[in-house]
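Pair request: fold both.
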Amino acid sequence: MVAAFVEAKEKSEEGTPFACHNPRYKVVNRSARPKLPAVSEQMKAWSAALEAELVNWPRVSLRPMFGLKALYRGKRIFAVLPRTRGMGGAGSLAFKLEDAGPRVLARLRKDPRIRTTMMQARRWFVFELSSDRDLKDAVDWLGRAYEAAR
């Protein structure tokens, strides 16, 4: 219940003040938050394999985040792997490419396994895994995100 009453009214004029009639707070629309689907046992295995690879890269650290594992290069986040919840689909991970050039953006658009997210302005992309063959490409995209997170 506490999570539903979080934003100050002066930040946004929409919403309804909650029961205590405090004018500073509003009800946050719970349906506006993205649903994070539960991941399969297969996706948990793929995520563990990717994590085992990525934690060996220089300056990479992991932090738990809403059923996901956030990957950082130093202080900059560059990807999230599913732990119990997926980002977008049940078999997906997400990575961040802030300054992708036109050729990289064209490759992203052509790959049917990649979708943009609600956070498109921040250049987050979702990669959907469906077989073991997708792991190599996932590592390649995560490597690009890692390099971009300097």
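--- second member of the pair ---
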Amino acid sequence: MKELRLDYSLPHLCQILNVSASPTYDLKASTVYPIVRKRVLPTATVYTDEFRTYDSIKRLGYKHIRVRHGDEVWVIGDAHTDTIEGFWSLLKRGINGVYHSVSEKWLQNYINEYGFRCNHRKDEKPMFLTVLEKL
């Protein structure tokens, strides 16, 4: 069986983070770019680190700002990847610390749970009530 990988490469978009994440089997441009096209508005500015898969993202029509962590650059104006990196960190710690391991069958559900938490982290209403309203 191929190793399933979380797609850590999906870019951080502007200041408003609405996480939409999914597992992938690889992080090649041929895998990642269709996901980006499907989930990222054409008018969005895409902020990434220097992961090579993003070398050609401008060809998709996106404005692209690359934050070069290798050069010890963490922020360029409003451009940074801290929020999405925080999301991936919380997801990985949640899986390892709370669930310990997950099967491929249920992985998308765990990703969705942490995406929901991230997307509603600044809500005034308690998150539990937001979940109840969706039932």
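Observation on the second member. The radius of gyration is 16 Å.
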